[in-house]
Amino acid sequence: MRAMSLAPGTKLGPYEIVSLLGTGGMGEVYRARDTRLGRDVAIKMLPASVANDADRLQRFEHEARTVATLNHPNILALHDIGTHEGSPFLVSELLEGETLRQKIEAGALPVRRAMEYAKAIAQGLAAAHEKGIVHRDLKPENIFITRDDRAKILDFGLAKLVLPESNGDSATTLTSPATLPGMVMGTVGYMSPEQVKGLPTDARSDIFSFGAVLFEMLTGKRAFKKDTTAETMTAILREEPPELLETNWQAPIGLQRILSRCLEKSPERRFQSASDLAFAIESLSGTSTSPSVATQAVKENVNWPKWMLSIGVGALLLVVAAAAGWWYGRGADPPSQPAYQQITFERGFVYAARFAADGRSVVYSASWDGQPLQIYSTVEGSPESRALNLLNSTLFAVSSTDLAISIGCKNRYIGDCQGTLARVPISGGAPRELANDVISADWTADGSVMAVVSHVEGKYRVEYPRGKVIYENVHPLGRLRISPNGKVIAVTQSVGETGDGGRVFVLDTNGKELTSTEVFVSVEGLAWPPSGDELWVAAATDKGWADSIYGVRINGQKRLVLRLPGMVRMHDISRDGSVLLSKESWRSELMFRGPGDAKDRRLSWLDYAEVTDLSDDGKMVAFSDWGEAAGATALGFVRQTDGSPAVKLGSWDHPVLSPDGKWILAIAGEEIGQWQLALVPTGVGEVRKLPTIGVQQLGLMGWMPDAKAVYYGADDGHGWRMYLRDVPGGAPRPVTPVISFNPYYTEGHLVSPDGKYIFARNLSGKGAVFPLSGGDAREIPGWLPEDIWIRWSKDGQEAYVYHDNKTSATVYRLDLNSGKRQQMATLAPLDSAGVTSTSNLEYTPDGKAYAYSDTQELSDLFVVQGVH
Length: 868
Description:
Blueprint: E1 11-12, E2 15-24, E3 27-34, E4 39-45, H1 48-51, H2 54-68, E5 78-84, E6 87-93, E7 97-99, H3 100-104, H4 111-130, E8 133-134, E9 143-146, E10 151-153, E11 160-161, H5 193-196, H6 203-219, H7 229-238, H8 253-262, H9 274-283, H10 293-301, H11 306-311, H12 313-331, E12 339-342, E13 348-355, E14 361-368, E15 374-379, E16 386-391, E17 393-398, E18 402-413, E19 416-425, E20 432-443, E21 450-456, E22 459-463, E23 469-473, E24 477-482, E25 488-494, E26 502-508, E27 513-516, E28 522-527, E29 535-540, E30 548-552, E31 558-563, E32 567-573, E33 579-593, E34 601-602, E35 609-614, E36 620-625, E37 635-640, E38 647-650, E39 653-657, E40 663-667, E41 676-681, E42 688-691, E43 697-703, E44 709-715, E45 720-726, E46 733-734, E47 757-761, E48 767-771, E49 778-779, E50 788-792, E51 798-804, E52 809-815, E53 821-827, E54 835-843, E55 850-865
Helix pairs in contact: 4-6, 4-9, 6-8
């Protein structure tokens, strides 16, 4: 239900609508007359989603009353709340003037005027914070400048009630759903680092947002503004805005100190209260400007000789640079070049590798020439490897006496496994199982203590020592490495459930986050050099796969250590500084076979084509590409199966064809917190966005048989459910209870041909059929844990399913009533070396044509010396 437009004269209790003032994402705003008091007021009609949830409406009313207790000249006064025909509304004072955003659009404000506004905003925040109310969405649009030039804070629409006695759990916001730890709230560009990370927030988060607003008032430019949301969030986490003094302004020097302190990445280093911030600004109000800000800043910080100050800062930098160049050219030896020694020579994929305690031997897990995964050892200088007879296992860590391995490796992503942690003596013997559902493990330098990353009950946990949880998150955690002194731990965190994009952060032994990297497009390994003064990370910032190794210090400083042509994965660093890395070649092929084909045909286009759909007549495939050629974001394509050139549709992920092939349903982006669907024409037409507010992840997408609606699976923080949404508009409606979701495989064509049922996995993980009209689900008889859904048969009585055997896939026709199955085909690439998955199968309803993708990763392992 949408908020209705109210005609002039409409009565809402004592309030009579006069005119519509505007509309926005949070509802419609009207000018109204308070007939009791004879004054004009503003009325905001809120979205129906608030009214449709009784608990949420009750919380909204409670928090609105709390906000109404605020009585401050720099905060919009809230007079009343109520409901009209089921829709809640707010009554506030009516303001005349313009927003701060409108003022800034003309350029930077005069310094004195900006400071007056800043003091007023800080004083308003202080009043709210004293009541336990945090705004959480402070930005120029939410600050109003009245005609008499007073600043007022508007719309505590994301205000979070954080009473002093709060236990730290996430509270419910005024006009948004209940938040969960890890959920990103706020407006990109003004969010604090803790908001970007989805961590709990307090008043100090508003102070960071205030700093971003102050910077924009003073410069006319945003403090953190990049081309994409992900890049902007990364800038908030890692970058500093330009210093005001660099602009050579005639402005108080202390203003830069205030701004810098507001924009500190760590909340502990910011102003600890808005009242302190307001006092600091007020203390500058009488400060005169300096005639030479840049020179005075240099004088204050360093006792430079007078002759250096006289030549100016810019000229001084030229002198220093010239001197450094002369020294390098005349008096310094050129840097040594790294030396590479290849130590594996078979064709296949290396999952993980570590140096042994002697620093010369290397232990690694690999699948060579299509054979099962197992663990090997080799010695530097030897062209041969020795199998350790540990099949279907991958390596986690090596100590002087034992190996930590994963038994029954469940492939999470390329090279990443989740399985049973076990300990095996290097001298030989049977593995001793230690823990289930472990993703990564590492030992301290002396081998006495182990840390692990585990995945238990939907949460990712860091345990150090093993069994003691020091950190947990709902977002996927991966590789873990302990520093040489054992005092800090580095961990990777993925952007989505699958994929290798994400950040690396460092924890102390109590689980406190000490630093975090930017969000990398690809993270392919991390290790500590012997000194332990920085962490080395194999990553990419703007390409599809990692091609560089960066050094990251605890203070957040980053430097380039090594760059290679092509993809690299870093596995370990020895005690003498040798680096163990693998040179990688990763591809995903798209294969097709139609009724007239004698064998499978290759329809790949770039280097990593993953098929996502096949038309019912078998004449068109849709696919996405995430490889080196595509770069940092996915590209969506369609291609005729006759071999015609592929048509690039743009930066879309997981394209699914409409029944007539004229549209695709796709994910508009996988940037953090920005999950959104889109309808994209395959020919002439305009893109239509389908926002999915509050969704943390999307998947399981497709079209209804009549093409009048689409369905999709979504997780809003409370679990996965399937939704239907009419095309082109309308609100999404859930059609299943909470279900389980396997993010590692593409499953589609979930709705039956008659449009009455939808396939999904119940919470037990078993395949089930859910009636779209409501009612109990029916488990599919004969369903096996390894079954992966492809689609319904043409008559709706059977389904196509398959098993991913890594180097092949077995396809079955499963009777949905009896549970009987019939094997239809075994699909396998001709070259099985390095193939880690045969997946993303698509079949036509009559079973006469199919398409699939197989991923092939080839690795060559190297020991590299001389890297600094």
